[in-house]
Amino acid sequence: MRFGLGVLLTLLILAGCSSPGTRLSVAPETAELEPGGTLELVAEGLPGDTLVWEAAYGTLAGTGTSRLYRAPDFPADDRVIVYSQTDPRLRAEVRIAVRSARRLRPRVEIAGDLALIFTREGEERLVEALVYDAAGNPIPEAELRFTSEDPQAFAVEPSGPRSARVRALTQEATSARIFVRYGDLETWAYAVRARLQPDAVQLEDADLLEATWDPQAQAWTRVLLRRTGATEALSEGQVVFSGDRTGVWGRILRAEPDGDRIALELGPAALEEVFAELDYRARAPGFAARARLGTAGLRLSSVGGAERLVPLGPCEAGDAPELEEFEATLRIQSEARLRVHEGKLEDFTLAFDPETRHTLGPVRLEFSGEDELHCMLASWGADAPPLSLLLFTLRPHSAFELEVGASSSTPVEATLPQLSFARALHLGSGQEEALVAADGFDPETAGVRLDSAGELDARLRLRARFEARASGEADPPDLEQQVERAFVLTLTLPEPAAIEDPDYAGPRWEMGWLASQPRTRPPSAGRLKALVPTQPTATDAPLPTHEPALLHNPRVWSYLTTGASHQVDLGNSGGDDLPHLNFGADPDLTGAAEVWVRPCMPGQGCAQTLRKLGSTPKGEPFIWWPEKRDRGVYEVFVRHRLGPLGRDLPYASQPPDPWLVVRTPDLTELPLVLELRGPPGGTAEGVLEYANPSARAAGPGNEEVELTSPLRVTLQPSGNLSASPRTLTTAAGMRGRHLLQAPCPETGGEREEALELFSNDPEWPQVELPVHVVCDAGPNPAAHLSARPPGGPAPLAVSIAFGVEAADLTSSCQLDFGDGSPPFAWSAGSCPKAGELVHDYPQPGRYTLSLVVADGTGPRTLAQYTIEVK
Known about the structure:
Structural class: mainly beta
């Protein structure tokens, strides 16, 4: 008693210490969801680690005080119960109605044989059908309507709410559909009027107890029948067959009674051993299904409206890709034609046309580098309506698997565009397939961004298997084909990844569908072979492999044109030889082209990185207007920023001859002031002298290229000035000289004149030089110059006669041969009054021979002679 009072006292104390106001609630309390939909549930009032969550049909995931509820993939009235582990009296309940927005429809199926075989006029057979609701439960009160496609050949009379009797009215071999309708649903059986071979006997399905199929012998080998008067009458040599639902046939090798059963040993028998006259055409009801893959999972819907949701599979490594949508539609249509005339098989045609169309929405992949990803996203299968071949039934089935795998050696972000693939397989009549653009397909939506050189290989793989299985699930399929399609994106950005590097090659990528070799099991084995053993079909040949490419990196090109042979002379006016770069791409994508060059400058060598000249929209040429400071040799590169991927990673090309030489005249060493000196009453003289210095740089093959072009100077004297020659062309590395003269008045004195100089140097197109005329000096020296011969073919040896008169002790002389060779010079006071020497001109050209007399103030007078070497 004392112990009992102690326990009671303890319980009272614990009860007093508990919170009298503790209450558990879960929000929301009620909800309505689509099958497969999700809902967040949140509990309040108790700690999360003390709660127990249970759902009758759906699933719960999460920790703490919240759970993510996922509805079942079928309609249901679900309940979620939450209660305390320590005190189960504290509990809460959420009621969730799972309802599909689609209409869930019933279905109608034929019970028994699909094909009813009639062997005489007036014979009757029963056709029955069953109706199932959307949940697969039979509807016993359903009433069906039965009608004949050909009432003149087969009459139909209802015999119950779900059955009818069919009577043959014709002696001709023919067939017709017996339609079965429930509301707007429809299916059909076949009524077949045939004439059997004399030794053929049709078995009743109710008498068939057991049968054994031997795939090696391709025949039924043993059959057990109920012992009846009809089965006792069976004998060796007869051909027996049942309906297509059980699908048993063969020639009797031995018949023995076995108690209340009859045991038959059978051998092979072909279709023409059963039927003497037959004309059967069958077309099974079409089947269509659609699968849509999104972030929630794979949603399957049939043509009848039934829908279910399959959650996405986990990924072995990495995060799942962002897949906006994958959609596949499947349509299967089955047909058969069997014709036997006078015991000979005249036509056997079997065609299964499973047609699939897969549309892939934009897919986004992200990698941090050195990543691999593999996800089995989903797999699903679909059964098509069966097709009767009279002696058995084929049941078409299609199965699909969708997985994604990718790897990358560098950080990458990739977005694949929306694409679509269509395939139609006609077993018995060939194959068709095509890549098609999905609705709203736009390759501009694709894009790949790499932070450095590397590789990306992404594959979205679809495996499709089609099979037609004969009655009996244990048997291998009579027809089978498995095809694998992989949507592939391969991208390589080789080193170097910098577009200013001369060796940058741009990205190489390919995007499209790749096919594996189809694996086909043609109807050369199994029951089809047993049915038609002597007639191969077109499906015996292997189906071809297709590897269609959809998108790939464009083929880009560029070419360079100038007025000369890839040379630009800034000394030529009009800009006719300005470099024009034109661009092209296949396929034709939108974007722009950038022109980059690697300069090789005089005295600096060739640069290690490229210099960007500019860009132009695609379709328009790029014209470069170089300046004098751009004189040099350039290797031209083009970066094509085309399409979605090329915007970030431009494609690369070079013109076939990528070298461009920019040349210019270089007018240098102009005097600030010209001075002319002469005696009063005589002629004041002076010499204008300037240089066109040579400049060279490394060109193609490291050969030196002359970058200075000929300098053309024209003088425009003012007042009483005169110039000789008025116009002069000076080659690279040469000096130009003009003799200037002005009359001196008798009174002498000094005056100022002006001389305008015009040149083809783009930096000095026009210069005004001041001229100071001094008329108080003594007589000017006189220079004389001649050459023999004045011209001729190269090499040419020229005898030059020269002399200077009235030269004083301050006068110096210089004989310039005009070909760049060192001049012949005399120091002050040693100018010869007469002299002669021989000079060789080995190369063709126009050379100006000059004898210059100078004093301490500069050149005073000049004699020139032109030599033409051809």
